[in-house]
Design brief:
It is a single chain. This protein is of the alpha+beta class. Helix content is about 50%, strand content about 10%. The chain has helices at about 5-15, 25-30, 50-55, 110-115, 140-145, 155-160, 165-175, 180-190, 200-210, 215-225, 230, 235, 255-265, 270-275, 280-285, 295-310, 315-330, 335-345, 350-365, 375-385, 400-410, 415-430, 435-455; strands spanning about 15-20, 40-45, 60, 70-75, 80-85, 90-95, 100-105, 125-130, 135, 150, 180, 285-290, 290-295. A seven-stranded mixed β-sheet has the order 3-4-5-2-1-8-9. A two-stranded antiparallel ribbon has the order 6-7. Strand 12 (about 285-290) and strand 13 (about 290-295) form a beta hairpin. Helix 13 (about 255-265) packs antiparallel against helix 14 (about 270-275) and helix 22 packs across helix 23. It is globular, with a radius of gyration of 28 Å.
Amino acid sequence: MCKLSDETVSDILERGRIYEVGGTVRDRLMHRPVISKDTDYLVTGITYDDLARILKRHGRVDLVGRSFGVIKFTRYIDERPVTIDIALPRREYSTGWGHKDFNVNFDPSLKVEDDLARRDFTMNAIAMALDDHDVIDPYDGRTDIEKRIIRTVYPGSFKDDPLRMLRAIQFAARFEFMIEPKTFEAIRDNAALIKTVSSERIAEELNKLLTLSGQPSHGFRLMQTTGLLKEILPALEACVGIDQPGGYHAYDVFEHTMHTIDACPPRLRLRMAALFHDIRKPQAKRLTDTGATFYGHEHQGARAASIALTALRYSRDFIREVETLVERHMFTTDVTDKGMRRLMRRVGTDLIFDLLDLRRADVIGQGKGGKTEDVDEFEAAIRAEMDRKPPLSVLDLVLDGHDVMRMFDIPPGPIVGRVLDALLEAVLDDPEVNNRESLEALARDYMKNENSKNK
């Protein structure tokens, strides 16, 4: 956790008062590990310029937040730069929806209580003085923490910043708290406003829900009952009530997805893949005499995941990883060593174990008491194969593109890649042929066949 040094705090206290505010105070009062990467500070009794001068004696000061009364202060911890936000107390006046248009008035003479009045929930509207550890709690947030209740500080909170609706749900799932009735109804009434929030901010809350909650399903069910889900992930909303006849599933598609997410270890790409793994079952469903089939849902689901995650501004690499896990989640463990190596190649060694964990969670999520010993045995075989370091990509071949070009006196181009792909296919079948003599012979055979086709 990033904190101010004792020397910096001491210098500030000579002129004013400094408080720790927000999530770190909440976590301490809950006797939970403080996981916030940053500690937020509030300083009263010192002007903005004087505070900047004090801080410059201890590190680098960035005044880009001047209009908000915020100073970005950078100090070095173990030779690494760490930036901390230090703010003066302020009042905010919303002039538009979506936390996009608002006026900010900051004033060092304002009481800390005035600043806490603009916070989202009572459990986050608590400050702790660093000099005497006095707790400032004007909205009785400690009582709400004890009662495990999430309550907004003021009635118009969600209109001022609609992301707070998703934050309430994320906190409810993460801390196993209840959203009090008026706050819950306010979420239902304002759910459509979530569309005014930037995709990046929504994604950040989804990430916290998926990785910091023991049971993310609680959050997604709350999203569904409040109407947020259809605004953020309409494809998941479409899974509600889609039954899966045939004896393999105890739940509809939505509930199966919820159980699958909960059964996954809390890794973001894995739980995100679980969220999307059956997302296109409603569209792929075909009734049969014995139940239903969902052919192709994994390929459609990978595409749906890509579209949704692109809209939420996830990185290309992350989207590719989730796509791969969704598209390959129907893999079979009943394969030869050749088939296993092909799966390892297509998925990649960095993703293969997430894929196995997704299968385990998928089986648990079926709710039929299914066993996963076959996955355990498959994992053991994969690990043994990896220890042997088999060639799994063209980079592992003893022949490279330059060798191919010299052999056939050809320039760079698609044909070089096709030769290498053909060689890799042969090596996946039999790793023993990954030697220069064998690969050169195979390359000549491939080019001979190519030339005969083009005559």
